[in-house]
Design goal:
The chain is mostly helical. It has a domain of 56 residues. The protein is 54% helix and 0% strand. The protein starts with 10 loop residues before the first helix and ends in a 24-residue tail after the last helix.
Length: 91
């Protein structure tokens, strides 16, 4: 005999689940907050109601977030530094 489907979770359970999912994403995805904030800014930028100056400011903010801070960028200083893969000039 087939069992009845489970009832939909109550709103409180849904909120708990959303919070757990968010915590998991924050834990596993290093740049989750930066990406999430950038997506929200992008959605504001896409709107036709945004003025040109506002769009320029939003674009600058998104670019800064995408580039990150100077201390967070890593430089390649190993033996292969400066080598571009797939070029004919290599070995």
């Amino acid at each position: 005999m087939p069992t009845a489907p489970a009832p939909a979770p109550a709103p409180a359970r849904r909120k708990e689940h959303k919070e757990q999912v968010l915590q998991k994403k924050l834990k596993l995805k290093k740049n989750y907050t930066t990406i999430h904030e950038s997506v929200l800014l992008w959605e504001k930028l896409r709107q036709r109601s945004a003025g040109a100056k506002e769009k320029q400011q939003l674009a600058r903010t998104i670019t800064k977030k995408a580039r990150g801070t100077r201390t967070s960028r890593r430089r390649c200083t190993g033996a292969g530094a400066g080598v571009v893969l797939g070029t004919a000039g290599g070995a």
